[in-house]
Amino acid sequence: MGMCLPCLGGVPEDVVETPDPEIRRKQLAEAAEKRQKEVTNRGIKNPEAVERKKKKQEEMEKQALTSSKSGEGGGLKWQVG
Question: What angle do CA 32, 34, 37 make, to 5 degrees?
Fold first, then answer.
């Protein structure tokens, strides 16, 4: 009997209209990014400081690799005498 109400012009209030697929895709992507950030920052008081330390360490490692390549001797000097 409740199935006849939409036919008679009555709009049921519990029907939720699904959004456009493009809008839905965008919402799902935003939600996924938000969950990923929450998981990444879980247990960290200051996530920005952690990112800065990580970048600084990567730069130091990169610099160490480039400096060892340019020396070509490994930085060791042998003395014979």
Answer: 110
pTM of the predicted structure, to 2 decimals: 0.40
Length of the chain: 81
Q: Which two tokens stand for residue 18?
A: 């699904």
10-40 per-position pLDDT tens digit: 556 677 777 789 999 999 999 999 999 888 8
Task: Give yes or no for a contact between 29 and 21, defined as CB atoms under 8 angstroms apart.
Answer: no
Question: Which tokens sit at 45?
Answer: 């008081």
Q: Please compute Rg for the chain using Cα positions.
A: 30
Contact 53, 46 (CB under 8 A): no
Neighbours of 51 (CB within 10 A): 13
